[in-house]
Amino acid sequence: MSPTNQQVLLAARPTGFPNPTDFRLVEAPIPEPADGQFLVGIAYLSVDPYMRGRMNAARSYADPQKLDEVMGGGAVGKVLASRHPGFAEGEYVVGMFGWQQYALSDGRGVMQVDPRLAPISAYLGVLGMPGFTAYFGLLDVCAPRPGETVVVSGAAGAVGSTVGQIAKIHGCRVVGIAGGDDKIRWITEDLGFDAAFNYKTESPYQKLKELCPAGIDCYFDNVGGSITDAVLPLMNTSGRVSICGQISMYNLEKPETGPRLFPLVLVRTLKVQGFLVFQYASRYGEALPKLAGWLQEGKLKYRETVAEGIENAVSAFLGMLRGENIGKQLVKISDQ
Ligand SMILES: NC(=O)c1ccc[n+]([C@@H]2O[C@H](COP(=O)([O-])OP(=O)(O)OC[C@H]3O[C@@H](n4cnc5c(N)ncnc54)[C@H](OP(=O)(O)O)[C@@H]3O)[C@@H](O)[C@H]2O)c1
After folding, report:
1. CA distance linking residue 213 with residue 203, whole number of Å
2. d(CA 33, ligand 1 centre) in Å
3. 49 CB under 6 A from ligand 1?
4. With 80 as the cut, is the pLDDT of residue 60 above it?
5. For the chain, how far is it from start to end, CA to CA, in angstroms?
6. Which of 52, 82, 119, 178 has its CA 20 to 30 A from that of 323?
7. Are residues 40 and 75 in the same domain?
8. Residue 298 covered by a domain
9. Ligand 1 pocket mutation pick from 185, 202, 222, 275 by most atoms within 8 angstroms of CB
10. Confidence band for 182, pLDDT divided at 50, 70 and 90
11. Could you give the number of structural domains in the chain?
12. How far is the centre of ligand 1, averaged over its atoms, from the C-alpha of 322 (Å)?
């Protein structure tokens, strides 16, 4: 056990793209569990796009991250000591333990995870929040039918790479949009997307027109902005759009203006629906066995980009915002 608990705090609210100086690494004593609590030794922590929104002062769907407090976030680890009847020493757990090496918990929002089903890091990705986001955001919001064309933006990330594969499992034709040639190769050659292109080197509208000759039935939107502006005019009548994320706008200092596309929504009778994964919390138990089953059958694959050490959590987070990750971006904290 390391003698202290290293933690990353939010030191300042970022303006535009965050700076390393907006965070502070501190050391605190390792806490002792009181009655009804347990101590978790964190193995991996997750850095996610939603954390950027929480760094702003304004409330969105989650309360703002408080200044000078441990950065909130999902993590997976092992129970090292327990005075809680529901959690035993040696069990693996996933919960909102934050950017630190050790966390105390009272068990609220914590789930035990099975390391025999998959490596524990997968419970922060394909078998965790991003996996559930892909599952419900695609199947519940878009409800794709076999033979339909599904377009996914942010296609080589944690959510997007899972969305595309679930759409393939459901018999759809899948086209991915991502920001790098290595990403395009991974999703087409390894994950089985039918086609994909790099939005940084190709014109999204022209490329989508070429790759979706029968139009687009479902669009899973992870990025928003000009990519989404290029997708919508190619949507078929009664198409469905799942608004999952708008990462292209998270670091803007001023809102962007764009074309007014609601006339298209009207005349093509599109369904455009935003969703938040935690609206589906009571149904995670339905998604987990499906995702784990596809994983075991080899129909669903995942990839992780892993930074090493709590001191690299900030650079991993900033790298993810810049698109340096392929698949799920994690930070390995210890060998629990
Ligand atoms: N609704 C919900 O409940 C929910 C839950 C989880 C996640 N989300 C959203 O889903 C999206 C994906 O999340 P994730 O966890 O899977 O992250 P991720 O895709 O693994 O990582 C973020 C990716 O965003 C892309 N990106 C960054 N800036 C961009 C820009 N200006 N334009 C286009 N793409 C950009 C980068 O890939 P490229 O190299 O391809 O640019 C980067 O790798 C995010 O928008 C997130 O907020 C929503």
Report:
1. 16
2. 36
3. yes
4. no
5. 10
6. 119
7. yes
8. no
9. 222
10. very high
11. 2
12. 10
**Per-residue model confidence as pLDDT tens digits over 298-329:** 999 999 999 999 999 999 999 999 999 999 99
156 Cβ closer than 6 Å to some ligand 1 atom: yes
Q: Are residues 182 and 51 in the same domain?
A: no
- State which of 52, 135, 159 you would mutate to test the pocket of ligand 1, scoring each by most atoms of that ligand within 8 A of its C-beta: 159
Q: Which range marks the domain in which residue 78 is found?
A: 4-124+303-332
Q: Residue 330 forms beta bridges with which residues?
A: 46, 306
Classify 98 in phi/psi space as left (phi over 0), alpha (psi -120 to 50) or beta.
left
List pLDDT tens digits, range 104-146.
999 999 999 999 999 999 999 999 999 999 999 999 999 999 9
Proportion of the chain above pLDDT 70, given as a percent: 99
What are the distances in angstroms from CA 201 to CA 40, 87, 156, 198, 209? 44, 50, 16, 6, 16
The verdict on 137 and 155 lying in the same domain is yes
Instruction: For ligand 1, say whether the CB of 244 is within 6 Å of any of its atoms.
Output: yes
Q: Are 191 and 210 in contact (CB under 8 A)?
A: no
Considering the domain architecture, whether residues 86 and 148 belong to the same structural domain is answered as: no
Ligand 1 centroid to residue 168 C-alpha, Å:
20
Question: Hey, whose CA ends up nearest to atom 23 of ligand 1?
Answer: 323
Q: Is 95 in the pocket of ligand 1 (CB under 6 A)?
A: no
Residues 12 and 30 grouped into a single domain: yes
Whole-angstrom Cα distance, residue 139 to residue 127?
16
